[in-house]
Automatic annotation (TrEMBL), chain A:
This is Strigolactone esterase DAD2. Keywords: Hydrolase. PANTHER family: ESTERASE-RELATED (PTHR43039). SUPFAM superfamilies: alpha/beta-Hydrolases. Belongs to the AB hydrolase superfamily. It comes from Hibiscus syriacus. GO terms for molecular function: hydrolase activity.
Automatic annotation (TrEMBL), chain B:
Residues 543-563 have a biased composition (Polar residues). InterPro entries: AAA_lid_SMAX1, ATPase_AAA_core, Clp_N_dom_sf, Clp_R_N, NBD_SMAX1-like, P-loop_NTPase, SL_signaling_regulator. The keyword Nucleotidyltransferase does not apply. This is Clp R domain-containing protein. Residues 952-962 have a biased composition (Basic and acidic residues). Belongs to the ClpA/ClpB family. PANTHER family: CHAPERONE PROTEIN CLPD, CHLOROPLASTIC, PROTEIN SMAX1-LIKE 6. Gene3D superfamilies: Clp, N-terminal domain, P-loop containing nucleotide triphosphate hydrolases. Residues 8-190 form the Clp R domain. Residues 536-563, 934-962 are annotated as: Disordered. Pfam families: AAA_2, AAA_lid_SMAX1, Clp_N, NBD_SMAX1.
Length: 266, 1121
């Protein structure tokens, strides 16, 4: 049973080392997004790679619209994977949605995680009274309807925006993975993500965290990193990468890798 | 030979055989001679429960109505069948070879996947396609299952064409066949998301699906995720009172209680069945706000009563819902009422632990923490369990957006890239290389064909018309000149042809395989080249071509492109302005080459031939002349040749073969100024070809070493030992290539330069490139440490560097960057600086590269490095290679400081010296460590001078008298350097954890390289002495002995750096004589210099040199104050 989950979500364990490291991709990408980071860590870690169920590389039949309405089922998936692999402690690197998933997973199983590294993380994307998440509800609705009417056009417009830095290969790569997602799933996941609000539960995190954020990120304003730092329960550090975009692992792997390494060493 | 129907049938399962019978029937009806795949398709489509038709239904594009499309399909099948010639009716038209082949193919694929075969059996029985064959027959003779048969038939090009005409893609159909319709909704989309059709995927789709379904039990409709979680908590034995945490917690709580009261029994099970929800939210509000706890008392009594009842009946329970926890910690004067409530609830909980559930929500953990502070035991007493809630259900109310999106999705379903892309970085290694090899092979074949073709067409007349002057020239020198011309013509024709071919294949390769090519040259296609293999030239032609081939094969056996590329690079300089490489252009080129050559034969010692207006041209002529009989200036030739290698090469390569044959004749006249052990011919040849490149590389021999050494020493005169060992290594390498003919021992082409002298290493690398690949440009130079370095602005070294890491490498890892450069220059010296600073990715890549001869980038694509010479440098010396270098000697100008040199403008300040005795007796020129503001006048600067006197470096002729210079003092002068060091220090501590592994890696790498070469530090102090001497003599000459000149340390460093960098040895002396001398003269004229005057040569900080002196990186003029 667990085996099939591993298969369905394309779980791979690579590298040699005594510590486990989970690399979890964000929405709109799949595990291939880590390929530039991966070789740098394979010698020192056993790296667990998997695809979120919403990723384009996963059979869309597995995406159950009635189940994946919140982030918790994703957390279930993650914990099930770790269980199936017999992992009892690991470091976790999560990007965007997966950062949220990692936070939730660590709340549920604090002993399982030795460290959370959150790249481009945000507990809440929508603005609130005294919280700046970067998006207004109205904007989001517009985005959703744009996705709905013409997904392709939306992808083509959104990808460069999200990638931020002027790296055509990264834009291409992100567009590819984004486009691989079935539009309805993509939209559904986006709704789920924008609907999620982790602000209240951040205090439950006891695992040490490292928030990695780029200098300019369309999805996550700089204040969010600070918010995370103050509100996350565990010992938390913030690293600002001197690059732009939401996907530093795609655009600036050389910049990200040392930061990751440092964070993992602590 | 067609196969009989009965013979074919025995390979098929019953079902498949039935289909075949149908096909035979179709063929019979149409009275065709054979049963082909088309008949089979026609039959398959008409079968009652046609798998093929069903698959088509699922794959068809939505652009057309299905009925129409099927009609189109039938029509196109029919038309294709009509086209087949009919013959007289045969009883059972035998199976055509193509159909039989399809059967065989399907058999093979089925045999490859026995498991999926069984599965398939299983599966098809589910689909009511039960067949009786079963597994038992599979052993005896593998009977082809219908599905496999269809799949194979679809591979038939005729069939796929027919389907294509009807708007179907056979690959889509195959996919649909392999992936049976599991879910009604989305199977249509599956093709976009599944791996491309390979039969082995069958297992995935069948097995994975089943298992996965099991994994998610109980997905009742309408129960949202939050409710499910809440009920999960409540079903537990302890910690069963959920406290929902999160911004949306309250909402979720409401939703849950609502569905509870509505009695959605699906949510609750076990103990919870039949429980009632009682809310005390309102009552709490009342207590807190109004202090009225009467109602609360009542309510709690009610609760207690219900619980009592439940206990009695043995079922049900109470879910006591207190709403927002915030209500309970309201910090008011009335807060007192809360604690009794909390205690009361705790009491209730204790009594009716099995029947009572408390429930609540809280905005954030912080509030809950506060609450806990107030009531430390509450978590245990209330049996609370925190449940993070991250989203409310509200926005998912209503239908999922599925349906509308599906529509928008379909039209571009075909645009989805296949996921094979995904896997390619992992599994698809080597992809680009074999393809290019393919191209290379084809290219080679064609080249051979051209060469063998011999005298195909003779357009010699035209050729000679184009070269009238050449003929005239050739006539001057009767026998020899003609010979030269002949071979030249033949050789150049060949090379032109080869070039054309090469271009063609490069194009093809680029187009097909996206291989980056090196060339920007727009070469003519073959047709443009006049073919001049006249019969009278054929003998020479043969000879040259064979020689050429042998070179090609023996030296670079596994890399035929090497030659072409060299050809290319060699031709590059030819395409000077007007020559866009049409045949005419090339002829002109020949022309000039011949010009060069013939005079060299005729007027052997005349250096200044009048028509050599252009310096480059004359150079090329010089170097071109060498092999013939122009003996004396061999060394100068070489020198010039190396400097202007890019231009001189031109003549050399085209003539190299020429030389070869002439050498025999001229060997007598060739000088014997070289060692006796070197074969004169080959040596001489090598000598010339040290600038001429690979075409003549075969000839490198014993003399090779010396020639390389000479070429290198020319460039880097100060590194004798290193130069010796490099040339030794390289000549060994070449010798090896030659003698082993293609056996490439791994790591052979790797060298490691250890120790200081960065510029020297770089110069040697570029000199090697010149020697080995014919151009100094054939260097891929990357500094592996550059990523953690901030660029020195205005550094004197700046222009030498490649563009900084940041610009080039955005979005790339270092190894990708290297790979890219390697791809650009497949024949080059790869010069990787500071390999000890390499990040892990690069380490990994290098590791593989040295072992396999292929450099992988981060995506797993590999670039062959067999044609390269890789030089890794490291300034640090690892434990394993400790070679004692006397570091205890204090150096006044360490390399580190020199590397920080800036490219500032210089200035001379005039001041007067004090009558200080200690100062008056110095030699007149000295270097001051004082960093002076360029605006300062010496009068008010005196004090400072005295203060810093102690740290002044006094430059005297002896120079060896070392003043211990405090490091900190120097640091003050070089803030950038210091910052840099700090940076490095930080980086070191950062990478501490990996430094050890890195070191061991380095050692391992170095143990595999062919040779380690230790460099000595550049003798900056010596040079400094020389410069100071030079300047002082200059000074004495121009302004007189009594005037003192002070050289700012920064200027000194700048001069040293420039001297280090300059190509010519005397460049700095030249500069001192010309630029500084002129300035000093000007100063002498402008100011009335007294014996007490002090001139100061200082740098104008922030003012970058605008105009550089020729040949050296120093300002062309010096400002006067």
């Amino acid at each position: 049973m667990g085996y099939n989950l591993l298969e369905a979500l394309n779980v791979r364990v690579v590298g040699s080392g005594d510590r486990y490291l989970v690399l979890a991709h964000g929405s709109g990408t799949d595990q291939s997004v880590w390929q530039r980071i991966l070789p740098l860590f394979t010698p020192s870690f056993r790296i667990i790679l998997y695809d979120l169920v919403c990723a384009g590389s996963v059979n869309p039949d597995y995406f159950d619209f009635s189940r994946y309405t919140t982030l918790d089922p994703y957390v279930d998936d993650l914990l099930n994977i770790l269980k199936a692999l017999g992992v009892d402690r690991c470091a976790y690197v999560g990007h965007s949605v997966s950062a949220m998933i990692g936070i939730l997973a660590s709340i549920r199983r604090p002993q399982l995680f030795s460290k959370l590294i959150l790249i481009g993380a945000s507990p809440r994307f929508l603005n609130d009274k005294d919280y700046h998440g970067g998006f207004e509800q109205g904007e989001i609705e517009k985005v959703f309807s744009a996705m709905e009417t013409n997904y392709e056009a939306w992808v083509n417009g959104f990808a460069p925006l999200a990638v931020g830095a002027d790296v055509p290969t990264a834009v291409r790569e992100f567009s590819r993975t984004l486009f691989n997602m079935r539009p309805d799933i993509s939209l559904f996941v986006s709704r789920t993500v924008f609907n999620s609000d982790l602000r209240g539960v951040l205090g439950l995190v006891s695992v040490p965290c490292c928030v990695i954020q780029t200098a300019r990120d369309v999805s996550v304003p700089a204040s969010v990193a600070e918010y995370l730092r103050t509100h996350l329960g565990g010992r938390t550090t913030v690293e600002i990468l001197r690059t732009e975009g939401h996907l530093p692992h795609l655009t600036a792997p050389a910049l990200l890798a040392p930061v990751l390494r440092r964070a993992l060493a602590r | 030979m067609p196969t009989s129907v009965t013979a074919a049938r025995q390979f098929l399962t019953e079902e498949a055989a039935r289909a075949l019978d149908e096909a035979v029937a179709v063929a019979r009806r149409r009275s065709h001679a054979q049963t082909t795949s088309l008949h089979a398709v026609s039959a398959l489509l008409s079968l009652p429960s046609s798998t093929l038709r069903e698959a088509c239904t699922r794959t068809r594009s939505s652009a057309y109505p299905s009925r129409l499309q099927f009609r189109a399909l039938e029509l196109s099948v029919g038309v294709s069948l009509d086209r087949l010639p009919s013959s007289k009716s045969v009883e059972d038209p035998p199976i055509s070879n193509s159909l039989m082949a399809a059967i065989k193919r399907s058999q093979a694929s089925q045999r490859r996947h026995p498991e999926s075969y069984h599965l398939q059996q299983l599966h098809s029985s589910n689909n009511n396609n039960a067949n009786a064959t079963g597994c038992s027959q599979a052993q005896a003779i593998l009977k082809v299952e219908l599905k496999y048969l269809i799949l194979s038939i679809l591979d038939d090009p005729i069939v796929s064409r027919v389907f294509g005409e009807a708007g179907f893609r056979s690959c889509d159909i195959k996919l649909a066949l392999v992936r049976p319709p599991v879910a009604q909704v989305s199977s249509r989309f599956s093709r976009a998301h599944c791996p491309p059709i390979f039969l082995c995927n069958l297992t995935d789709s069948v097995f994975g699906r089943v298992g996965y379904n099991l994994l998610f039990p109980g997905q009742e409709d309408g129960v949202d995720e939050n409710c499910k979680r809440i009920s999960e908590v409540m079903a537990k034995k302890s910690g069963k009172s959920p406290l929902l945490v999160g911004v949306c917690a309250l909402e979720a709580l409401r939703a849950f209680t609502e569905s509870l009261t509505k009695g959605k029994s699906g949510i609750l099970d076990g103990d919870l069945v039949g429980s009632v929800v009682i809310s005390i939210e309102k009552e709490i509000n009342e207590i807190v706000n109004e202090g009225n706890d009467e109602k609360m008392g009542l309510k709690l009594k009610e609760v207690e009563a219900t619980l009592e009842k439940c206990n009695g009946s043995g079922g049900g329970g109470v879910v006591l819902h207190f709403g927002d926890l915030k209500g309970l910690i309201f910090d008011g004067a009335l807060g007192d009422f809360v604690s009794p409530l909390v205690l009361r609830l705790a009491g209730l909980m204790e009594v009716y632990r099995r029947r009572l559930w408390l429930m609540g929500a809280v905005d954030s953990v912080e509030i809950y923490r506060k609450f806990c502070d107030k009531f430390p035991n509450v978590e245990k007493d209330w049996d609370l369990q925190l449940l993070p809630i991250t989203s409310s259900k509200s926005s998912f109310d209503g239908a999922y957006p599925k349906s509308s999106l599906m529509r928008s999705f379909v039209p571009f379903g075909g645009l989805f890239p296949t996921p094979s892309d995904l896997r390619s970085p992992l599994s698809g290694r080597n992809q680009s290389i074999p393809r290019c090899n393919l191209c290379n092979e084809k290219y080679e074949q064609e080249v051979d064909a051209v060469k063998k073709a011999g005298s195909t067409v003779s357009v010699a007349d035209q050729y000679s018309e184009n070269l009238p002057s050449w003929l005239r020239m050739a006539a001057v020198d009767t026998s020899r000149g003609e010979d030269v011309a002949k071979t030249k013509a033949g050789e150049s024709m060949l090379s032109a042809k080869v070039l054309g071919l090469q271009k063609k294949w490069n194009d093809i390769c680029q187009r097909l395989h996206c291989t980056p090519t090196v060339t920007k040259l727009d070469n003519p296609s073959m047709s443009q080249v006049p073919i001049v293999k006249g019969p009278q030239f054929s003998r020479d032609q043969n000879r040259t071509s064979s020689g050429d081939l042998s070179i090609n094969e023996s030296l670079f056996p596994n890399q035929s492109p090497s030659r072409q590329i060299h050809m290319q690079t060699n031709f590059l300089p030819k395409s000077t302005p007007s020559i866009s490489c049409t045949s005419e252009g090339r002829n002109m080129n020949f022309h000039s080459v011949l010009h060069v050559d013939v005079p060299s034969v005729t007027q052997q010692t005349d250096k200044d031939v009048p028509w050599f207006h252009h310096p480059r041209q004359s150079l090329s002529s010089c170097s071109g002349r060498t092999p013939s009989s122009f003996v004396p200036p061999v060394t100068t030739d070489l020198k010039l040749g190396t400097i202007y290698a890019s231009t001189s090469r031109e003549s050399n390569t085209t003539k190299s073969l020429n030389h070869q044959e002439h050498l025999q004749r001229f060997s007598g006249s060739v000088s014997t100024e070289f060692d006796a052990n070197s074969e004169t011919t080959s040596y001489q040849f090598a000598q010339s070809s040290s600038c001429s490149g690979p075409a003549s590389a075969e000839q490198f021999d014993l003399g090779d070493y010396k020639s390389i050494r000479k070429a290198l020493a020319e460039k880097v005169g100060w590194q004798d030992e290193a130069v010796n060992s490099v040339s030794q290594a390289v000549s060994q390498l070449r010798h090896k290539y030659r003698s082993f003919r293609g056996i490439n021992c791994k790591g052979d082409n790797w060298l490691t330069f250890l120790g200081p002298d960065r510029v020297g290493k770089k110069r040697i690398a570029s000199a090697l490139a010149d020697v080995l690949f014919g151009s100094q440009e054939c260097v891929v130079s990357l500094d592996l440490s550059s990523q953690d370095k901030l660029g020195h602005s205005n550094s004197i070294f700046e222009c030498k560097e490649l563009s900084s890491y940041d610009e080039m490498s955005r979005g790339k890892t270092m190894s990708d960057l290297i790979a890219e450069e390697l791809r650009k220059k497949p024949h080059s010296v790869v010069f990787l600086e500071n390999v000890d600073k390499a990040d892990y990715g690069v380490q990994h890549s290098l590791d593989l590269a040295i072992r396999t001869g292929k450099f992988p980038d981060s995506r797993g694509r590999e670039i062959s490095i067999n044609n390269m010479v890789l030089i890794t440098t490291s300034s640090s010396i690892t434990k394993g290679n400790v070679k004692v270098i006397c570091e205890n000697k204090v150096v006044k100008f360490p390399e580190k400081i020199i590397l920080g040199a800036k490219n500032w403008q210089m200035q001379i300040l005039v001041g007067s010296a004090s009558d200080d005795a200690s100062k008056s007796n110095y030699m007149g020129v000295r270097v001051a460590t004082v960093k002076e503001a360029s605006t300062s006048t010496s009068a008010n600067k005196r004090k400072t001078m005295d203060v810093v006197e102690s740290s002044e470096l006094e430059k005297t002729d002896t120079g060896e008298r070392e003043h211990k210079v405090p490091r900190s003092c120097l640091d003050l002068n070089f803030p950038v350097e210091e910052a840099d060091e700090e940076d490095m220090g930080l980086g070191h501590s950062k990478s501490e954890s990996m430094s050890e592994s890195s070191e061991s890696w380095l050692e391992e790498l170095f143990s595999q390289v062919h040779k380690k070469i230790h460099f000595k530090p550049f003798d900056f102090d010596g040079v400094a002495d020389k410069i100071v001497k030079e300047i002082s003599s200059q000074c004495q000459r121009t302004v007189g002995t009594e005037v003192a000149l002070e050289i700012g340390e920064q200027v000194m460093v700048q001069m040293l750096a420039a001297a280090w960098l300059s190509d010519k040895r005397e460049a700095i002396e030249d500069w001192v004589a010309k630029v500084l001398g002129r300035s000093l003269v000007e100063v002498g004229q402008k100011y009335n210099l007294s014996p007490r005057s002090v001139l100061k040569l200082v740098a104008c900080e922030g003012d970058v040199v605008k105009e550089q002196a020729p040949g050296i990186r120093l300002p062309a003029k010096i400002n006067l104050n």
